[in-house]
Design goal:
With 254 residues, the protein is of the alpha+beta class. Helix content is 29%, strand content 30%. It has a five-stranded antiparallel sheet. Strands 3, 4, 5, 6 and 9 form a five-stranded antiparallel sheet that branches. Residues 9-20 have a biased composition (Basic and acidic residues).
Length: 254
């Protein structure tokens, strides 16, 4: 079991190096896509205002070109140079909007009622149906205090199984204020895509970080990884329409 965990960690570290550039490109393209969506919404609002004005003004000649016509702008992800199936990955939209507007997501996505914890959902659609679904996908980073996290899903054995992972993507500790140790708790849960109030806990792990001694465990060096066999979860009805839904429950305590 130990050797198997070690192999998984080595594979994960190698894949992280190979996919880092792809992740940065995906994040940039996601922001561009959202910017185009905002432009499209703004143009739709302008079109609504123009139509309302024309209906209330009898002096406007509708035969004059441009008075009552507005071109509809359609945003097509295939024309944006997005990686294949990138639009199949659903991430926390609230986080993405705040990332674009505030540039300080660590202060925005934390719950006001539970400031030291959060739940993050990651959905992957059309698994195994198309070749574009057979590559690693990463979520944007999210933050709790000075800790950053990132989730990922990647196929194994030609889509017969998937590996869900949670990466600790950023860590810093100021020992001068007395916060010498930080404990991170994580639960990885497989959710029912159809929302039938059923779920399955895949893994649960604690990680302790000692800022004074600079000792971290295996989770800090790599990530928490869970292998999901498609045959098993299909038999249990947890992969409806080739859709996989994972929830990461993360909490931090000092």
């Amino acid at each position: 079991m130990a050797s198997s965990d070690e192999e998984l960690r080595e594979q994960m570290q190698e894949m992280m190096k190979q996919q880092e550039e792809l992740f940065q490109k995906q994040l940039k393209l996601q922001q561009q896509f959202q910017h185009l969506q905002l432009q499209h919404q703004h143009q739709q609002q302008q079109h609504t205002e123009v139509t309302s004005t024309n209906n209330n003004n009898d002096k406007i000649d509708s035969t004059v070109p441009g008075n009552n016509t507005t071109e509809e702008v359609k945003v097509d992800p295939s024309n944006l140079g997005l990686p294949p199936a990138y639009d199949q990955l659903e991430t926390n939209q609230k986080y993405a909007q705040q990332l674009q507007q505030h540039h300080q997501p660590q202060q925005q996505i934390i719950s006001q009622h539970r400031p030291n914890s959060c739940s993050y959902y990651m959905r992957l659609r059309h698994m195994g149906e198309h070749p574009e679904g057979m590559y690693t996908t990463y979520s944007p980073e999210w933050y709790i205090g000075n800790l950053g996290f990132r989730a990922s899903l990647w196929p194994e054995n030609h889509g017969k199984s998937y590996c869900a992972a949670l990466h600790l993507s950023y860590f810093s500790m100021d020992t001068t204020v007395g916060f010498s140790k930080t404990t991170v708790k994580c639960k990885v849960t497989l959710m029912d895509p159809k929302g039938r109030q059923s779920d399955c806990l895949l893994a649960e792990r604690d990680a302790v970080f000692d800022g004074n001694r600079q000792i971290v465990d295996e989770w800090a060096r790599g990530c928490i990884m869970v292998r999901i066999k498609m045959k098993d979860i299909k038999e249990r009805g947890m992969c409806s329409d080739y859709t996989l839904l994972i929830r990461y429950d993360v909490s931090v305590s000092v």
